[in-house]
Amino acid sequence: MKQLDCVREHIRTNLATDIEVAELAGLVRLSPHYFSLVFRQAVGMPPHRYILQERINEAQRLLAAGSMTLAEVAAHLGFADQSHFSRAFRKLTGRTPGSCRN
After folding, report:
1. Rounded to whole angstroms, how far apart are CA atoms 81 and 28?
2. Does the N terminus or the C terminus of the chain have fewer Cβ atoms within 10 A?
């Protein structure tokens, strides 16, 4: 599980960047395809979904702190724009980002 911890830490510290499966697979010296299979078995979701979930979790924390606007949170976490962020947030949480702030 040390390898999984390494991958999770890499994801957490690089949320604002475009994290590729090949990049994560390279960290643990696996092929991207095999990495995706093993990751899904260990975590219960594919790598891309996990990355998105981590971004939304961080967004919830940032919104609760109240020091950033929605657009700033979206940019800080690597979303293309505020609209993309809002759609992803709502899809995963069932709530709008603005409701999380209240």
Report:
1. 31
2. N
Lowest model confidence (mean pLDDT) among 35-39, 47-51, 81-85: 81-85
CATH of 2-101 given 3.50.50.60, 1.10.10.60, 2.40.400.10, 2.40.50.100: 1.10.10.60
Instruction: From 7, 3, 38, 1, select the one nearest 20 (Cα to Cα).
Output: 7
For the whole model, what pTM was predicted?
0.89
Q: Name, in order, each residue with C-beta under 8 angstroms of 32's C-beta and a sequence gap of 6 or more.
A: 21, 22, 25
The total number of residues written for the chain in this structure: 102
